[in-house]
Specification:
Elements lengths: L16 H9 L6 E6 L5 H8 L3 E7 L18 H10 L7 E4 L3 H6 L6 E6 L5 H11 L3 E9 L7 H9 L6 E2 L5 E4 L6
Parallel strand pairs: 1-2, 1-4, 2-3, 4-5
Antiparallel strand pairs: 5-7, 6-7
Length: 187
């Protein structure tokens, strides 16, 4: 059965997340080559593409829980259902390249300094987000952008890992998305 986000009331603290995400996108330049890490069914991917600012999007997700659960804990749908929904929607777009693999494997597929923007919304535990930031930061061009989701007190691992980058305080948005501009010489 395809995943239908309207059919399930899963616990999202960020209902109306599209407002904050759209606000974040207004800070980004046109003609982006970007990667989105952690896709779920593609709601944010759809918003990125609808902005008209994305020329190429690398979509990275393994569509499995890090605990290897067959079903995400907040829905009755399997990870395969969720993946199928992504593939039937934004995954079909010509500007999308799907890398159905864990984040660190996906990062290894992308050359350093080739992306304008990376948006990370995968596992929010400190060790995972720290590894994601470490793997994806070199992929961003000088003066490019790094961002993600869940920069708020309920995700202390995200806040800690982003702070440890030493790039200053990120811009934050109503959906808990965050955004940093990378200066020349960034790590």
């Amino acid at each position: 059965m395809p995943y239908n986000p309207q059919a399930v009331d899963y616990p999202r603290a960020d209902r109306g997340f599209d407002v904050g995400l759209r606000d974040m996108i207004t800070h980004l330049p046109e003609h982006l080559v970007m990667a989105e890490i952690g896709l779920f069914s593609g709601a944010s991917t759809t918003i990125f593409l609808a902005s008209g600012k994305v020329d190429k999007l690398y979509a990275v997700d393994s569509w499995r829980d890090y605990a290897e659960d067959a079903v995400p804990y907040w829905t009755p749908f399997t990870w395969q259902d969720v993946r199928d929904t992504f593939m039937a929607g934004p995954g079909q777009r010509a500007e999308v390249t799907v890398l159905a693999m864990p984040s660190l494997e996906g990062a290894a597929q992308i050359a350093d300094g080739t992306l304008d923007f990376v948006y990370i919304d995968a596992n929010h535990a400190y060790d995972y987000i720290k590894a994601d930031l470490t793997a994806w930061l070199p992929k961003v061009r000088t003066n490019g952008w790094l961002g993600g989701h869940d920069y708020w007190p309920r995700s202390p691992g995200v806040v800690r890992a982003v702070t440890e980058l030493g790039l200053g305080a990120p811009l934050t948005f109503s959906d808990s998305s965050w955004l940093l501009r990378l200066p020349a010489g960034a790590p």
